Protein backbone atom coordinates (compact mmCIF):
# COMPACT_ATOMS: atom_id res chain seq x y z
CA UNK A 1 0.00 0.00 0.00
CA UNK A 2 1.26 3.50 -0.80
CA UNK A 3 -0.43 6.47 0.88
CA UNK A 4 0.13 9.70 -1.04
CA UNK A 5 0.40 13.09 0.74
CA UNK A 6 -2.59 15.42 0.99
CA UNK A 7 -2.59 17.75 -2.02
CA UNK A 8 -2.53 21.56 -1.66
CA UNK A 9 -6.15 21.68 -2.86
CA UNK A 10 -7.22 19.13 -0.23
CA UNK A 11 -5.40 21.04 2.52
CA UNK A 12 -6.96 24.37 1.48
CA UNK A 13 -10.37 22.73 1.43
CA UNK A 14 -9.88 21.54 5.01
CA UNK A 15 -9.86 17.79 4.29
CA UNK A 16 -8.84 15.68 7.28
CA UNK A 17 -6.26 12.89 7.11
CA UNK A 18 -8.13 9.65 7.85
CA UNK A 19 -5.44 7.10 6.87
CA UNK A 20 -2.53 6.35 9.19
CA UNK A 21 0.31 3.86 8.85
CA UNK A 22 0.81 1.94 12.11
CA UNK A 23 4.08 0.33 11.02
CA UNK A 24 4.75 -3.38 10.46
CA UNK A 25 2.57 -3.50 7.34
CA UNK A 26 -0.67 -2.25 8.90
CA UNK A 27 -2.77 0.75 7.94
CA UNK A 28 -5.59 2.26 10.02
CA UNK A 29 -8.60 4.16 8.65
CA UNK A 30 -10.42 6.31 11.22
CA UNK A 31 -13.43 8.47 10.37
CA UNK A 32 -17.03 8.92 11.42
CA UNK A 33 -18.73 5.47 11.37
CA UNK A 34 -15.53 3.94 9.97
CA UNK A 35 -12.74 2.43 12.05
CA UNK A 36 -10.80 -0.33 10.36
CA UNK A 37 -7.28 -1.78 10.31
CA UNK A 38 -5.80 -3.66 7.35
CA UNK A 39 -2.63 -5.75 7.10
CA UNK A 40 -0.39 -5.94 4.02
CA UNK A 41 3.11 -7.00 3.00
CA UNK A 42 4.27 -3.38 3.32
CA UNK A 43 2.74 0.07 3.84
CA UNK A 44 4.50 3.24 2.64
CA UNK A 45 3.32 6.50 4.15
CA UNK A 46 3.29 9.94 2.53
CA UNK A 47 6.95 10.59 3.39
CA UNK A 48 8.30 7.44 1.70
CA UNK A 49 10.72 8.09 -1.17
CA UNK A 50 10.63 6.35 -4.55
CA UNK A 51 13.81 4.48 -3.57
CA UNK A 52 12.18 3.27 -0.33
CA UNK A 53 9.17 1.94 -2.25
CA UNK A 54 11.44 0.20 -4.78
CA UNK A 55 13.54 -1.52 -2.12
CA UNK A 56 10.71 -2.26 0.32
CA UNK A 57 8.02 -3.53 -2.04
CA UNK A 58 9.93 -6.45 -3.53
CA UNK A 59 10.34 -5.07 -7.07
CA UNK A 60 14.11 -5.70 -7.02
CA UNK A 61 13.46 -9.39 -6.27
CA UNK A 62 10.98 -9.53 -9.17
CA UNK A 63 13.66 -8.23 -11.54
CA UNK A 64 16.03 -11.00 -10.40
CA UNK A 65 13.29 -13.64 -10.75
CA UNK A 66 12.45 -12.43 -14.27
CA UNK A 67 16.12 -12.89 -15.25
CA UNK A 68 15.88 -16.42 -13.82
CA UNK A 69 13.04 -17.18 -16.25
CA UNK A 70 9.90 -16.38 -14.27
CA UNK A 71 6.91 -14.39 -15.53
CA UNK A 72 6.69 -11.36 -13.19
CA UNK A 73 4.10 -8.58 -13.07
CA UNK A 74 3.87 -5.32 -11.12
CA UNK A 75 0.59 -3.43 -11.29
CA UNK A 76 -0.58 -0.22 -9.65
CA UNK A 77 -4.23 0.04 -8.61
CA UNK A 78 -6.29 2.83 -7.06
CA UNK A 79 -8.71 5.68 -7.67
CA UNK A 80 -7.84 8.42 -10.12
CA UNK A 81 -5.31 10.88 -8.68
CA UNK A 82 -3.98 8.47 -6.04
CA UNK A 83 -0.42 8.40 -7.40
CA UNK A 84 -0.27 5.23 -9.54
CA UNK A 85 1.51 6.72 -12.56
CA UNK A 86 3.88 8.71 -10.34
CA UNK A 87 4.79 5.54 -8.42
CA UNK A 88 5.50 3.58 -11.60
CA UNK A 89 6.92 6.28 -13.89
CA UNK A 90 7.83 9.30 -11.75
CA UNK A 91 6.76 12.89 -12.56
CA UNK A 92 4.83 13.39 -15.79
CA UNK A 93 6.86 16.55 -16.62
CA UNK A 94 10.02 14.59 -17.37
CA UNK A 95 11.29 14.19 -20.90
CA UNK A 96 14.37 14.74 -23.04
CA UNK A 97 14.38 18.48 -22.33
CA UNK A 98 13.43 18.18 -18.66
CA UNK A 99 14.71 14.94 -17.11
CA UNK A 100 13.41 14.01 -13.67
CA UNK A 101 15.64 14.32 -10.62
CA UNK A 102 17.22 10.89 -9.84
CA UNK A 103 15.37 10.69 -6.51
CA UNK A 104 11.98 11.02 -8.25
CA UNK A 105 12.45 8.22 -10.80
CA UNK A 106 9.66 5.64 -10.68
CA UNK A 107 9.72 1.89 -10.15
CA UNK A 108 9.98 1.24 -13.88
CA UNK A 109 13.14 3.30 -14.45
CA UNK A 110 14.73 1.83 -11.29
CA UNK A 111 13.87 -1.68 -12.48
CA UNK A 112 15.44 -1.02 -15.89
CA UNK A 113 18.68 0.12 -14.20
CA UNK A 114 18.62 -2.93 -11.90
CA UNK A 115 17.96 -5.27 -14.84
CA UNK A 116 20.89 -3.99 -16.88
CA UNK A 117 23.14 -3.99 -13.83
CA UNK A 118 22.18 -7.59 -13.02
CA UNK A 119 22.71 -8.68 -16.63
CA UNK A 120 26.26 -7.31 -16.55
CA UNK A 121 27.11 -8.83 -13.15
CA UNK A 122 25.68 -12.31 -13.84
CA UNK A 123 27.79 -12.86 -16.92
CA UNK A 124 24.88 -14.28 -18.89
CA UNK A 125 24.15 -13.56 -22.50
CA UNK A 126 20.89 -11.59 -22.18
CA UNK A 127 18.71 -10.46 -25.07
CA UNK A 128 16.27 -7.75 -23.94
CA UNK A 129 13.23 -6.47 -25.81
CA UNK A 130 10.18 -4.39 -24.89
CA UNK A 131 6.56 -4.16 -25.99
CA UNK A 132 4.16 -1.42 -24.88
CA UNK A 133 0.38 -1.34 -25.35
CA UNK A 134 -2.70 0.34 -23.96
CA UNK A 135 -6.31 -0.77 -23.55
CA UNK A 136 -8.47 2.22 -24.45
CA UNK A 137 -12.27 1.84 -24.61
CA UNK A 138 -11.79 -1.95 -24.80
CA UNK A 139 -9.43 -1.63 -27.78
CA UNK A 140 -5.85 -2.92 -27.57
CA UNK A 141 -3.45 -0.45 -29.20
CA UNK A 142 0.32 -0.68 -29.78
CA UNK A 143 2.12 2.35 -28.30
CA UNK A 144 5.43 1.63 -30.06
CA UNK A 145 4.25 1.10 -33.63
CA UNK A 146 5.05 3.89 -36.13
CA UNK A 147 2.16 6.21 -36.93
CA UNK A 148 -0.99 6.67 -34.84
CA UNK A 149 -1.87 3.71 -32.57
CA UNK A 150 -4.27 1.29 -34.27
CA UNK A 151 -6.42 -1.46 -32.76
CA UNK A 152 -4.88 -4.95 -32.59
CA UNK A 153 -6.60 -8.31 -32.21
CA UNK A 154 -6.42 -10.25 -28.94
CA UNK A 155 -6.23 -13.97 -29.62
CA UNK A 156 -6.04 -17.24 -27.67
CA UNK A 157 -3.81 -20.26 -28.17
CA UNK A 158 -3.30 -23.37 -26.03
CA UNK A 159 0.44 -22.83 -25.82
CA UNK A 160 0.59 -19.03 -25.39
CA UNK A 161 -2.72 -18.28 -23.68
CA UNK A 162 -4.10 -14.84 -24.55
CA UNK A 163 -1.78 -12.80 -26.74
CA UNK A 164 -1.86 -9.69 -28.93
CA UNK A 165 -1.49 -10.38 -32.63
CA UNK A 166 1.14 -8.35 -34.55
CA UNK A 167 2.36 -6.51 -31.46
CA UNK A 168 5.70 -4.80 -32.02
CA UNK A 169 8.64 -5.84 -29.83
CA UNK A 170 11.76 -3.64 -29.85
CA UNK A 171 15.23 -4.83 -28.78
CA UNK A 172 17.27 -2.61 -26.47
CA UNK A 173 20.71 -2.82 -24.87
CA UNK A 174 21.06 0.40 -22.86
CA UNK A 175 19.24 2.37 -20.18
CA UNK A 176 18.86 5.31 -22.56
CA UNK A 177 17.20 3.11 -25.19
CA UNK A 178 14.53 1.69 -22.86
CA UNK A 179 13.88 5.15 -21.35
CA UNK A 180 13.29 6.45 -24.88
CA UNK A 181 10.80 3.64 -25.57
CA UNK A 182 8.97 4.44 -22.33
CA UNK A 183 8.78 8.15 -23.20
CA UNK A 184 7.71 7.37 -26.77
CA UNK A 185 4.77 5.26 -25.59
CA UNK A 186 3.75 7.71 -22.86
CA UNK A 187 3.59 10.76 -25.18
CA UNK A 188 0.21 12.58 -24.96
CA UNK A 189 -0.41 11.98 -28.68
CA UNK A 190 -0.16 8.23 -28.03
CA UNK A 191 -1.18 7.34 -24.45
CA UNK A 192 -4.64 8.74 -23.75
CA UNK A 193 -4.80 11.22 -20.84
CA UNK A 194 -7.30 13.98 -20.00
CA UNK A 195 -7.93 16.57 -17.31
CA UNK A 196 -10.99 16.55 -15.06
CA UNK A 197 -12.05 17.76 -11.62
CA UNK A 198 -9.97 15.18 -9.71
CA UNK A 199 -6.82 14.91 -11.81
CA UNK A 200 -5.11 17.18 -14.36
CA UNK A 201 -3.34 14.21 -15.98
CA UNK A 202 -5.84 11.36 -15.65
CA UNK A 203 -4.92 8.18 -17.55
CA UNK A 204 -7.83 7.20 -19.77
CA UNK A 205 -6.39 3.80 -20.63
CA UNK A 206 -4.65 0.86 -18.99
CA UNK A 207 -1.00 0.63 -20.12
CA UNK A 208 1.16 -2.52 -20.12
CA UNK A 209 4.92 -2.34 -20.70
CA UNK A 210 6.49 -5.81 -20.94
CA UNK A 211 10.22 -6.52 -20.86
CA UNK A 212 11.07 -9.85 -22.51
CA UNK A 213 14.28 -11.40 -21.16
CA UNK A 214 15.93 -14.24 -23.06
CA UNK A 215 19.08 -15.54 -21.42
CA UNK A 216 21.68 -18.11 -22.38
CA UNK A 217 24.39 -19.06 -19.88
CA UNK A 218 27.85 -18.25 -21.18
CA UNK A 219 29.92 -21.44 -21.25
CA UNK A 220 33.70 -21.60 -20.91
CA UNK A 221 33.71 -24.90 -22.81
CA UNK A 222 33.67 -25.26 -26.57
CA UNK A 223 30.19 -26.73 -26.64
CA UNK A 224 27.88 -25.78 -29.49
CA UNK A 225 25.49 -22.89 -28.60
CA UNK A 226 22.42 -25.14 -28.86
CA UNK A 227 23.57 -27.06 -25.75
CA UNK A 228 23.61 -23.97 -23.50
CA UNK A 229 20.71 -23.88 -21.01
CA UNK A 230 18.38 -21.02 -21.92
CA UNK A 231 15.64 -19.18 -20.00
CA UNK A 232 12.84 -16.84 -21.00
CA UNK A 233 11.35 -14.49 -18.44
CA UNK A 234 9.12 -11.43 -18.55
CA UNK A 235 8.77 -8.34 -16.40
CA UNK A 236 5.44 -6.58 -16.98
CA UNK A 237 4.45 -3.19 -15.55
CA UNK A 238 0.73 -2.39 -15.59
CA UNK A 239 -0.40 1.21 -15.03
CA UNK A 240 -4.14 0.82 -14.51
CA UNK A 241 -6.43 3.74 -15.24
CA UNK A 242 -8.00 5.00 -12.01
CA UNK A 243 -11.45 4.05 -10.83
CA UNK A 244 -13.63 7.15 -10.62
CA UNK A 245 -17.14 8.39 -9.99
CA UNK A 246 -18.38 10.28 -13.03
CA UNK A 247 -20.30 12.67 -10.76
CA UNK A 248 -17.12 13.56 -8.79
CA UNK A 249 -14.96 14.14 -11.89
CA UNK A 250 -17.56 16.24 -13.71
CA UNK A 251 -17.01 14.08 -16.81
CA UNK A 252 -19.41 14.17 -19.73
CA UNK A 253 -19.47 13.07 -23.35
CA UNK A 254 -16.35 11.15 -24.39
CA UNK A 255 -14.82 11.38 -20.89
CA UNK A 256 -17.93 9.74 -19.45
CA UNK A 257 -17.75 6.88 -21.98
CA UNK A 258 -14.07 6.37 -21.11
CA UNK A 259 -14.83 6.35 -17.37
CA UNK A 260 -17.58 3.74 -17.81
CA UNK A 261 -15.24 1.49 -19.83
CA UNK A 262 -12.47 1.91 -17.24
CA UNK A 263 -14.80 1.08 -14.35
CA UNK A 264 -16.28 -1.90 -16.20
CA UNK A 265 -12.84 -3.44 -16.80
CA UNK A 266 -11.73 -2.78 -13.20
CA UNK A 267 -14.96 -4.42 -11.99
CA UNK A 268 -14.15 -7.48 -14.13
CA UNK A 269 -10.63 -7.53 -12.67
CA UNK A 270 -12.05 -7.32 -9.13
CA UNK A 271 -14.48 -10.16 -9.86
CA UNK A 272 -11.64 -12.40 -11.08
CA UNK A 273 -9.55 -11.53 -8.00
CA UNK A 274 -12.49 -12.30 -5.66
CA UNK A 275 -12.94 -15.75 -7.21
CA UNK A 276 -9.18 -16.46 -7.24
CA UNK A 277 -8.99 -15.54 -3.53
CA UNK A 278 -11.25 -18.47 -2.66
CA UNK A 279 -9.64 -21.80 -1.63
CA UNK A 280 -8.75 -23.91 -4.68
CA UNK A 281 -11.43 -26.51 -3.92
CA UNK A 282 -14.20 -23.90 -3.87
CA UNK A 283 -13.24 -22.02 -7.02
CA UNK A 284 -15.65 -21.88 -9.92
CA UNK A 285 -14.93 -20.75 -13.49
CA UNK A 286 -12.73 -17.60 -13.54
CA UNK A 287 -14.28 -15.20 -16.12
CA UNK A 288 -11.07 -13.84 -17.68
CA UNK A 289 -12.92 -13.28 -20.97
CA UNK A 290 -15.13 -10.56 -19.44
CA UNK A 291 -12.65 -7.81 -20.44
CA UNK A 292 -9.50 -7.28 -22.49
CA UNK A 293 -7.66 -6.32 -19.29
CA UNK A 294 -8.42 -9.59 -17.47
CA UNK A 295 -7.51 -11.61 -20.56
CA UNK A 296 -4.08 -9.99 -20.73
CA UNK A 297 -3.57 -10.38 -16.96
CA UNK A 298 -4.89 -13.98 -16.79
CA UNK A 299 -1.45 -15.56 -16.55
CA UNK A 300 -0.29 -13.01 -13.96
CA UNK A 301 -3.35 -13.40 -11.73
CA UNK A 302 -4.05 -17.09 -11.58
CA UNK A 303 -1.42 -18.86 -13.63
CA UNK A 304 2.30 -19.47 -13.26
CA UNK A 305 3.37 -15.87 -12.67
CA UNK A 306 4.66 -13.92 -9.67
CA UNK A 307 2.62 -10.75 -9.19
CA UNK A 308 2.87 -7.65 -7.02
CA UNK A 309 -0.04 -5.24 -6.59
CA UNK A 310 0.81 -1.73 -5.40
CA UNK A 311 -2.42 -0.17 -4.19
CA UNK A 312 -2.25 3.63 -4.08
CA UNK A 313 -4.64 5.52 -1.80
CA UNK A 314 -5.44 9.08 -0.76
CA UNK A 315 -5.46 9.93 2.97
CA UNK A 316 -8.18 12.57 2.45
CA UNK A 317 -11.50 12.33 4.29
CA UNK A 318 -13.25 13.28 1.04
CA UNK A 319 -11.86 10.14 -0.65
CA UNK A 320 -12.82 7.81 2.22
CA UNK A 321 -15.19 5.51 0.31
CA UNK A 322 -12.74 5.06 -2.62
CA UNK A 323 -9.87 4.45 -0.19
CA UNK A 324 -11.81 1.77 1.70
CA UNK A 325 -12.82 0.17 -1.61
CA UNK A 326 -9.16 0.04 -2.71
CA UNK A 327 -8.05 -1.45 0.62
CA UNK A 328 -10.72 -4.19 0.46
CA UNK A 329 -9.76 -4.86 -3.19
CA UNK A 330 -6.08 -5.20 -2.23
CA UNK A 331 -6.94 -7.42 0.76
CA UNK A 332 -8.66 -9.87 -1.59
CA UNK A 333 -5.71 -9.76 -4.01
CA UNK A 334 -3.36 -10.65 -1.17
CA UNK A 335 -5.18 -13.96 -0.68
CA UNK A 336 -4.62 -15.07 -4.28
CA UNK A 337 -1.95 -17.76 -4.65
CA UNK A 338 -0.30 -18.80 -7.91
CA UNK A 339 2.06 -21.63 -8.81
CA UNK A 340 5.13 -20.09 -10.44
Q: Can you give me a brief rundown of this structure?
A:
With 340 residues, the chain is an alpha+beta fold. The protein folds into two domains: 63 residues, no CATH class; 201 residues, Kinesin, CATH 3.40.850.
Task: Describe the fold and architecture.
The protein is of the alpha+beta class and 340 residues long. The chain folds into 2 domains: 1-46 and 315-331, no CATH class; 57-79 and 105-192 and 202-216 and 229-247 and 254-309, Kinesin, CATH 3.40.850.10. Helix content is 32%, strand content 28%. It is built from 10 helices and 16 strands. Strands 1, 5, 6, 7, 8, 11, 14, 15 and 16 form a 9-stranded mixed sheet that branches. The longest helix has 23 residues, at 254-276. The two termini are 23 Å apart.
Q: In percent, how much strand structure appears in the residues?
A: 25-35%
Major beta-sheet overview: 9 strands, mixed
CATH architectural label of the largest domain = 3-Layer(aba) Sandwich
| CATH-defined topology of the largest domain | Kinesin
Dominant shape: globular
Q: How much is the average pLDDT?
A: 86
Order of helices and strands: EHEEEHHEHHEEEEEEHEEEEHHHEH
GO cellular component, one term: microtubule
Protein name: Kinesin-like protein
GO molecular function: ATP binding; microtubule binding; microtubule motor activity
Subcellular location: Cytoplasm, Cytoskeleton
Keywords for this entry:
globular, nucleotide-binding, Kinesin_motor_CS, nine-stranded mixed beta sheet, 10 helices, three-stranded antiparallel beta sheet, Kinesin, alpha+beta, 340 residues, 28% strand, P-loop_NTPase, cytoplasm, ATP-binding, single chain, 2 domains
